Amino acid sequence: MRSIAAFLLLGAAVLPSLAGCENMRSDPAKATRAYPFNLTQARVAEIQVFNDGDAMLIVNATVEGWTDADVWLNQRYLHRIEKLSAGQTLRIPLDQFWDARGEGPFPGGLLRYYPPTPIRLVQIQTAPDAPLIGLKAIPTERELDLAQLKKS
Fold it and tell me: What is the residue extent of each domain of the chain?
């Protein structure tokens, strides 16, 4: 009985340290440029963006496409894409997004310390000085449930 209690005590001490292993994702070598707050968003394209666990899923059911464009997440994180063609579905792992300090969003996971970064605002930019094009971020059921709880 004593050994079981000792095992449980050890597990209670080790588990929080395992969860804390995931600190701020940081790699200064992957730092990008800062979000262009001085630019406007020209329009919103009829392109939907979904949270797919540890990735962003962009569903382009339109006839327009882009090459060599930047995808901005939540006015902070940046990822360069080679191409988003008309009719294409593109899956981008969240661990490929970086900000101006070399920090990345939290994709989530079983032993995560921080909650996953929500996908709220997604924009495409074709050049560093070009206006932004908004995409339609679709909230997950969990996000909708949390929003409903906050209202009540």
Answer: 24-151
- The two most distant CA atoms of the chain are separated, in Å, by 68
CB atoms < 10 A from the CB of 130, how many? 14
Q: Which stretches does DSSP call E strand in 13-128?
A: 41-51, 55-59, 66-73, 77-84, 89-93, 122-125
How many residues are there in the chain?
A: 152
- CA separation for the pair 77, 48 (Å, rounded): 18
Q: Name the nearest CA neighbour of 98 among 106, 90, 87.
A: 106
Residues 42-93: tens digit of each pLDDT: 999 999 999 988 899 999 999 999 999 999 999 999 999 999 999 999 999 9
pTM: 0.77
Terminal CA-to-CA distance of the chain, rounded, Å? 46
